[in-house]
Amino acid sequence: MNRVICFLDFPGFYESMLSHALDQEHEQWIEYYCDGGEESNDDFDLSGLSAGQIGEALFMATDYRKAYLSIAKDFAQGASALASELPGLSDNPLTFESMDSPREYNFATDRLFVTMSETDMAALFAASKAGNHAALAKTIKIRFTSYDGFCSHYSNDLAEWLEKPLDEWDHNEVGTLLSALLWEEHGDYLPDALYQACFSGNGEESNAMWEGLDESRFREELAKQRKAMA
């Protein structure tokens, strides 16, 4: 069965709760060793270096694209767990598809895409229809009403959306349908619910940190910091 692409509500990594989670993981890791969390570290020589020096080396040796991609996949998995609670959806309806990141964060942030089966998409629509599409109509109005500085390329009229066959809806339309039902289910607590589902206590932040860290580069940067002290 074909899978359809769906745009997922996602805060991105520009000064967001997700980027702060990775920053906090870095800080906690540094503090752990600087406070004598272990008498020695077999992987890296951190002796004699301040927290600031270690942090600088860590920053220089981290591929943030890889680290953020790890978090994005966990976010998609967490969103899937929440979506599975909606009426009629399968146990794991959403699968990570891709993350699109801008070259600069001046006017845009990261976008996250998932896929779902046509069966789950139909179940979403059926759940929305059961509520007379009230949540969908509200979400469409919020997202696609033009204003100064924003010209919507989609109608903000539910009736026009319903005229289009469901199997012709694009990723933004399917994503709006999903968002409408998730917001209806969780209300203003949805961002917190997604965050908690993403960071479920299984070490997602730590995994992202190590996924993005070039350990060889980190050793080189630590050596540079030590050399600068000589």
How are the SSEs placed, and which strands pair?
Elements: E1 3-8, H1 17-34, H2 51-60, H3 64-83, E2 95-100, E3 111-117, H4 118-130, H5 134-144, H6 158-163, H7 171-186, H8 190-198, H9 204-212, H10 215-229
Antiparallel strand pairs: 1-3, 2-3
Structure description:
With 230 residues, this protein is mainly alpha-helical. The protein has one domain. Helices cover 55% and strands 8% of the residues. The radius of gyration is 22 Å and the shape is elongated. The model has no long low-confidence stretch (mean pLDDT 91).
Number of strands: 3
Principal-axes geometry comes out as elongated
Largest sheet: 3 strands, antiparallel
Number of folding domains? 1
Provide mean pLDDT, rounded: 91
**Strands side by side in the biggest sheet:** 1-3-2
> Uncertain spans, ≥5 residues at pLDDT below 50?
none
Radius of gyration: 22 Å
- Give the quaternary arrangement of the chains: single chain
Share of residues in strands: 5-15%
Report how far apart the termini are.
64 Å
Determine the fraction of residues in helical runs and give it as a percent range. Answer: 55-70%
User: Structural class, judged by helices and strands?
Assistant: mainly alpha
Give the H and E element order: EHHHEEHHHHHHH
Count up the helices. 10
Keywords:
230 residues, mainly alpha, 3-stranded antiparallel β-sheet, 55% helix, elongated
Nutshell version of this structure?
The protein has 230 residues and is mostly helical. It has 10 helices and 3 strands; from the N terminus they run βαααββααααααα.
